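Much of our argument rests on the idea that a fold can be written as discrete symbols. Part of our work consisted of pairing the sequence of a single chain with a tokenised description of its backbone. No coordinates are needed to read the tokens, only the vocabulary itself. The record that follows shows the chain in one-letter code together with its fold in token form.
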Amino acid sequence: EGLYLYISRILRPVWASPLLSGADAKPLLSGSELEFIINKLQNVRVFLDENGSLSSGMDFQSKPQLPPGQQMSQLQQRSQQDAILREKQSLMLLRQLVIHSLQVLRLWMV
């Protein structure tokens, strides 16, 4: 959830107001403000790329290490695997949002 909050705070100036004002289509965000946002998003993208295995602390094939005498039921294992899969998918989609946001903002700067 922290990554989602951080990204939303970075993009808030873009989401909170129109990018153009008036009939002359004058941009409301300056070039330096857009560069700042792009720089922050690029840092997030690098973080996500370098830490792509954030949710892979447990591999789907491996079983969690439990103390002797405690066994996970098949239902618990499946539930845990489903949660890990959803988390990985969420991070992949978040990465796509960052990439697409970067593309739009870079085009906007042209």
Q: What stands out?
A: Residues 84 and 90 are 10 Å apart (CA to CA). Residues 74-109 form the longest helix (36 residues).
